[in-house]
Amino acid sequence: MGKYLLVLLSLFGLTATAQVNSDYNYSIGVRVYSLVQMPKILNETNTDYFTNAPVNGAMVKFNDNQISYRLNGTYYNKSKRFFNNCETCEEAAGKLVDYSFKVGFEKNFNYARIQPYFGLDAGYRSNVFTGNLENRNALREAAKPTSSPMPMDPEKVETSKSGLVVTPFVGIKISPFPQLSFFAEGNIDYFYSYERQTVTWQDINNTQTLKKYYKSEFLLNPVSVGIQVHLGSNK
Q1: Is residue 144 a contact partner of residue 152, using CB atoms and an 8 Å limit?
Q2: CA distance 137 to 91
């Protein structure tokens, strides 16, 4: 019986330590790795796939007891290749640049070294893709008239989405030391955007087509892990 009581007291001592994060005025964090769902581009297939985004964000938090007010941003800039409409229709290849700026809050459930939390961020997001489209339908290419004034394939495409993003999230922090925490959180982005799609054709006049839309989408971001350093002791 005494052994069980000793184990319980040890566990209690691990979780019921000093206030950890709330003993410091602010925190600086880096998102070391994120698994995210990017906004849909054109009529992209397989939009359910997730994108690996290493070292893609930073965060500043101002701590007030169990509530922290946070400013955070993300940035992603890499090449992207995908099928448009279908795998035998068109293939796009180019550069994707995605970034966001958000403000929000998070609330901790306790003051312990292991802290579950939840919160809400809101702000601005931009998603821009520039690249080329190539026809992957061999039958359509073979049937194209040689005298056609305009090729059936566009040469260049640029799409952009920009607008409001609202992000509820849940997470957990582990603080092995008072000045240092590791965190993992998951969230859902509600993205309401203004979209522009510009296509330039391979004719003598470089004919362009422009389409504009207002769209909304939900984007699941299953996990984001990182590290936070706590500064400005208020003891």
Answers
A1: yes
A2: 10
The answer for residues whose C-beta is within 8 angstroms of residue 143's C-beta and 6 or more apart is: none
Segment among 3-7, 66-70, 179-183 with least mean pLDDT: 3-7
Q: What is the mean pLDDT of the chain?
A: 85
Element (H, E) at 217: strand 208-233
The 8-class DSSP code of residue 105 comes to E
178-202 b/e with 16+ CB inside 10 Å = b?
bbebebebbbebebebebebbbebe
Report residue 72's pLDDT band, with 50, 70 and 90 as the boundaries. very high
| pLDDT in the model for residue 141 | 54
In whole angstroms, give the CA distance from residue 101 to residue 22: 25
